[in-house]
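Summary for the lay section of the report: proteins are chains of building blocks that fold into shapes. Here we show the chain for TetR/AcrR family transcriptional regulator and then a coded description of the shape we predicted for it.
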Amino acid sequence: MKDKIISKASDLFLKLGFKSVTMDDIAGEMCISKKTIYKYFCNKEVLIEESTATVHKQVHDLIDTIVAKDYNSIQENFEIREMFRDMFKNNIDTSPIYQLKKHYPEIYQTVLTKEIDQCTQYFRANIEKGIREGFYRKDLNIDVYVKFYYTLVFHINETTISEREAQKMELEALEYHTRAMATEKGIQELEKQLKKFTI
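The coded shape description reads as follows.
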């Protein structure tokens, strides 16, 4: 039952927002009493913490699945961006990350620390792969580019209220990031991916 509550709460939080979803809403959606939810979670904050941890794991499992398909480094980034777009396509217009930061800053900080750690590993692996493939320049300072990119992406998500606007800016950031690192061969692959993937 605990897992079912987390799963339903996660869906509702992502679709409707962390602030607007109440314990009553979750109970109503599941046809259970609010008392049942409180048996497992002493308050909404605890449920949000568990839900964000679950979503974090789901996201990184999906990223691992995409990485395992062994696309080239540039296509891999576009496939991951598409995965995020699909994941949030049913939500309200307000970005879930923006809401989390605004209304639950402590939980947001925990999520952010975990995300930066995992994203740093992923971005680094992607850049190293791109250099091996000849899509990215050999002379890159990998640490600097990793930091540039996650600073850009997290800034977009935590300061952009509209989810649609955030996604549009993320695509621009991905293009900017890729062009900054790309060889001529990489630019050709980037142009190919830009034709394929839209907002």
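Put simply, here is one thing we learned. The chain has a mean pLDDT of 89.
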